Amino acid sequence: MTLCLGIETSCDETAAAVVEGGATVRSDVVASQIDLHQRFGGVVPEIASRNHLMQILPVVDAALARASVCLSDIGAVAVTAGPGLQGALLVGVQVGKALCAAGGMPLVAVNHLEGHLWAQNLGAEHVAAPFIALIVSGGHTALYEVRGFREYRRLGATRDDAAGEAFDKVARLLGRPYPGGKEIEALARGGDPVAFRFPRALARVDDLDFSFSGLKTAVALEVQRRQPRGQELQDFCASFQEAVVDSLVSKLFAAARVSQTRSLVICGGVAANGRLRAAAAARARAEGCQLVVPAPAHCTDNGAMIAAAGHLAWKAGVISSMAVTADANWKLERIAS
Ligand code: KG4
Ligand code: ZN
Description:
- This protein is α/β, with parallel strands linked by helices.
- The chain contains eleven helices and ten strands.
- Helix 5 (163-173) runs parallel beside helix 7.
- It is globular and about 60 Å long.
- Bound molecules: 5'-O-[(R)-(carboxyoxy)(hydroxy)phosphoryl]adenosine and zinc ion (ZN).
- 5'-O-[(R)-(carboxyoxy)(hydroxy)phosphoryl]adenosine binds next to helix 5 and helix 6.
């Protein structure tokens, strides 16, 4: 049986999905907690854990029902074991173990970033290894050279804030709700991306690290000075978004050049951003590179990506023991061979 149930509870989405053959999404259920966290301006770990507890079984049931399967049809259960919020992760891990104990199928502990990475297998088009991956989310911004499953070499990473964190912080400065990425993108749509000149850090092409804290400070100072409203606010958001997109795209293509790879993947929540997708696609066309960016719903946190990565581990015989537990700081490099 090639059906894998993927479970994801690392942050503020309770998600489960059934994926066939590591690529065909049979169901994909995401219960977002955003409404609960919004009035606090960010994710409150205790609220997240408690809510995962309430949502997880109905979400798993819904994933099985929408795929028209029952637990005995599932060949393996893949669950996010880190990185993320410890209490939130534990809910998914315990449920994964319980399902495997009840159903007798193997358990696969999946690294959340590895899930983002292999979300590329869920679309109509995917690139074969070796490829360069830009993982860009709320907690991470890093470039990896992927030579195969579990053959990951980090080429660069942010020295301070993640790109998604920068979107979230700037939205907060502007009095906009959490999560900020979608909000900023919507405001930026009618704005002029060159109206404000915000800094691009570490612009040297041989430096594959990122930095967004200087940009965030520049934005904060400008917000204080102008309190942008109306068209100016749209210009402001478009200019900020352009600065982030510029940094991400230029470092991705610099990494491609350094490692002489023409196959590229962008994944993680920020990869849902339309301007990033368009700018990277244009550059890929100009440079003759193949670029895959998962569908927006598979960029932000979901269970299907965990099933996709879990499927690869399962087929490679990498099964977790029932003693496995959540690891809030699980580094992707640590599972690299
Ligand atoms: O991957 P993800 O869902 O969760 C983490 O693993 O962190 O990423 C969430 C991050 C948030 O910071 C959110 O603001 C950002 O992704 N994000 C976006 C967009 N959609 C989500 N950033 C820019 N544009 C978007 N459309
Ligand atoms: Zn994520």
